[in-house]
Amino acid sequence: MTGQLNFPALWPYWPELLSGLWVTVQLTVLATTGGVALGIAGAALRSGRPSWMSRLWGIYVELIRNTPFVVQLFFIVFGLPALGLKLTAGEAALLAMLINLGAYSTEIIRAGIQVTPKGQWEAGRVLGLTRSQTFLRVVLPPALQRIYPALVSQCIIVMLGSSVVSQVSYEELTFAANLIQSRTFLSFEVYLVTTLIYLALSIAMRHLLLAIGRKWFGVQPS
C-alpha cells in the first residue's frame, strides 16, 4: 500500500452523510408507496378486458423496462422543460423512480394475478361483489402473497438506483459521498463507508417490507 487509511478524517462529515441518507430514505418511501400503487392499478388494467387504455399502459411498461433509468431521469430533467414542464431536482428524481417502479411492479403483480384461479372471480360475482371489489378483496391479496418477495426485491433495486439522481445534483447519499470525496480525496474510505450504508439500508428495508408482508398478506418467511 502506498498510504495509510484515514477513516477518522471522515468524522466531521457525518452530518452530510446522514443528511444524504435521510433524503434517500424519504425518496425511497415515497417512490415505493407510489410505484406499488401505480403497479396495482396497471396490473388491474392489464388483467382486464383488452382496451385502448390497457394497450397504452402496455406501451408504457415496455418503454420503461427497455430503457436505462438514467436516460429516463435525464429525459424528465432536461427533456420536459422543452415542453414547458419544469421540475426541481427532487421532483424529477421522485417522478423518475415512481414511473420506473410502476412499470416493473405492474408486470410482477400481473404475474401473480394471472395464476389466480378463475373461480376466484366467479366466487366474487356469486357473492354480489362488483369487479373492482372482487379484485381488491378476493384476487389481489393472494396474488400479492405469491409475488411479494419479488416485489420487495424490485423495491430495493429502485432504492439502490436512487444513487443515479446525484447526477442531477439532488443531494441524496451518493451526492453527499461525492461531495465529501472531492473535499478530502479519501476515495477508498468515503465509498467504502457509503457502500456499507447502502448495504445496511437494503437489509433493513428487506426485513421491514417482509415483516409488513407477513402481517398484511400472510407471506411465509423464506
UniProtKB/TrEMBL annotation:
Gene3D superfamilies: MetI-like. InterPro entries: AA_ABC_transptr_permease_3TM, ArtM/GltK/GlnP/TcyL/YhdX-like, MetI-like, MetI-like_sf. Its main location: membrane. One of its GO terms (cellular component) is ATP-binding cassette (ABC) transporter complex. GO terms for biological process: amino acid transport. The keyword Manganese does not apply. One of its GO terms (molecular function) is transmembrane transporter activity. SUPFAM superfamilies: MetI-like. The chain crosses the membrane at residues 20-45, 57-80, 190-212. Keywords: Amino-acid transport, Cell inner membrane, Cell membrane, Membrane, Transmembrane, Transmembrane helix, Transport. Belongs to the binding-protein-dependent transport system permease family. HisMQ subfamily. This is L-cystine transport system permease protein tcyB.
